[in-house]
């Protein structure tokens, strides 16, 4: 029902790679069904890179990663300070509202409300304010929560899982993080599949849903 009612989808990331980890399979599903997919990335966390790194490395990796999933030329970048989103809540809300008016998405996917990374928490909250009259899903990052979150599941194929792993591997600057390993990504897809009756799946929490009666 969610996908059949969707014409435009907007994925919202606090940082480059957030969406790929949380929803790299769903991006492919929507694109393959002809849905107009957009991505907004709210931070270029250069402070998290080794000293002397190119300031555009994560932006370039994000473009390469999105292209691996079939998404290109539909990415909006912002430059909010990493780990300081709480100081910019109103500005973030206003940018989300501008995206809502410009793209007019039916489906929005962002961080889980149960994600305790400070930037993710703010983005989930402000997304709920900006898109309270649409369908809003939250993707999960198990390394940022101690809850098993998710009541909406999307089956993904083995090919889509492989493409997701390839997209995440485009973030070479983040390769040392343990959760970037292909076996971790696959294990999360297997776990979500076990929970939902599929071989592989991605899990999301339903944050809000408003569906217009077209009759």
Automatic annotation (TrEMBL):
InterPro entries on file: GlcNAc_PI_deacetylase-related, LmbE-like_dom_sf
GO function terms (MF aspect): hydrolase activity, acting on carbon-nitrogen (but not peptide) bonds, in linear amides
Name of the protein described by the UniProt record: PIG-L superfamily protein
Organism this protein belongs to: Marinomonas primoryensis
